[in-house]
């Protein structure tokens, strides 16, 4: 069972998301919060698999709530998915840097929304990779590519290749096909890279790959 916490200051949106999720046999909404501070408290209480987190909220915003959750080792199993009104929201990258596992645009169609929740629960792939690449192309390139350069030197050639493919939005199965290895080996390369780079999840791995210059925005 995938346990979900909804954190959004708009009751109507929370109700809409809950109505969709409650229809699914493998998903349970464990609680709802109207701001980031309440969301943080409920994350600690319920330890959900997924926290669907709005960015702009009163008291504590979604970015700060995400940062606090990601910094707490006791909450390492919680995958934070940011909810945004715009695919190019300037705050989304800040949320990814803070520790979010990915993000969803609020006008996503129901089928894609449910699929994304399941994907996030697996921790298998970054959500909305095409939109994420556009956002990274817009914002990451405004700063010098220096972050994490030293840590990248610890990666093997195959691990660097796997990280580059993760940054382009590929799943483990797709990485395996591209690298001509088994999906388990692909997952191992990705996990080892995450450990060496101290990345909380694949989303942070993507951000680091672009910020360090390992992957160039717009590259195939």
UniProtKB/TrEMBL annotation:
- Superkingdom to which the source organism belongs: Bacteria
Q: Which residues carry this modification: 4-aspartylphosphate?
A: 54
One Pfam family here: Response_reg
- Keywords carried by this UniProt record: DNA-binding, Phosphoprotein, Transcription, Transcription regulation
Q: Which InterPro entries match?
A: CheY-like_superfamily, NreC/VraR/RcsB-like_REC, Sig_transdc_resp-reg_C-effctor, Sig_transdc_resp-reg_receiver, Tscrpt_reg_LuxR_C, WalR-like
Record-level GO BP terms? phosphorelay signal transduction system; regulation of DNA-templated transcription
Membrane-crossing residues?
none
Alphabetical list of CDD domains matching this protein? LuxR_C_like, REC_NarL-like
One GO MF term on file is: DNA binding
Per UniProt, what is the name of the gene that codes for the protein in this document?
Answer: nreC_1
Give the species. Answer: Streptomyces smaragdinus
Q: Which residues form the HTH luxR-type domain?
A: 148-213
Q: What is this protein called?
A: Oxygen regulatory protein NreC
Response regulatory domain segment(s): 3-121
The answer to whether the entry has keyword Membrane is no
